[in-house]
Amino acid sequence: DVIESMLQAFQEETPVTIRCNLAKTTPENLKESLQKEGVTVTPHPYLSYAFRIQDYDHLSELESFQKGEFYVQDISSMLVGELADPKKGDRVIDVCAAPGGKATALGAKLAGEGLLVANDISASRAKALLKNLEIFGIRNSFVTNAYPAKLAEQFAGAFDKILVDAPCSGEGMFRKDLANARVWSLEKVKECAKTQHEIIRQAVSMLRPGGLLLYSTCTFAKEED
User: Fold this and answer.
1) Over the stretch 2-47, which tens digit does the pLDDT of each residue have?
2) Cα dist from 45 to 15, 18, 171, 192, 222, whole Å
3) DSSP E strands: which ranges in 83-191?
4) Is the peptide bond before 15 cis (omega within 30 degrees of 0)?
């Protein structure tokens, strides 16, 4: 039954969901701004700062989007930031952060206090990450472009919260990206699992005693989860 419901969900068009950027506005003000632009806004049942939106031409033309007042993100991804639940003053690192969806959520929860380190091993993706953090107004943050092993050398025991949103085989993205489905293989699953284990081993050494490391993927493969 579970498999059947998952396969059925793959055939359905998912609504566009957005996360209010709490570092810049409130859900109430965002909803009002979008409605003034003719957008149909429906509160999401899972999170008070999430909405489903309809009836717009191009996101990039919406003033609230240009101001960085919301981020387009699946509710499952938003729940990762909700579970991490960083507090004001925490030191937080997102180890595999680009393009910044979860990093901007973590940064907003810090409310301008503490520190957010957002890292990605790809230089080009790290640039996109930096741009999103700037647009979203996360001032108490900086971007790094390094392998986790190098980070572990510099930040031993430094962080209250660590997010490892690990590179994966992307099975959960098949309904959005058919190209990803076409290149899937069991060998890729095993390769990703090996990489993920290494990232976790490096990341956990950066965790302070009593801290939280949150691991997430967008795959169903048990080898990777």
Assistant:
1) 888 877 877 777 889 999 999 999 999 999 999 999 999 999 999 9
2) 13, 13, 25, 33, 28
3) 91-94, 115-119, 141-144, 159-165
4) no
- Of 20, 96, 192, 218, the catalytic one is 218
Q: Specify the pTM.
A: 0.93
Under a CB-based contact definition with an 8 Å cutoff, are residues 20 and 81 in contact?
no
User: Quick check: is 218 catalytic?
Assistant: yes
Long-range contacts of 59-62 (CB under 8 A, 24+ apart): 62/34, 62/37
DSSP 8-class letter at 77: H
Cβ(18)–Cβ(72) below 8 Å: yes
What confidence tens digit (pLDDT) does each residue in 120-147 have? 999 999 999 999 999 999 999 999 999 9
Residue 71: CB partners within 8 Å, gap ≥ 6? 18, 19, 21, 101, 104, 105, 132, 136
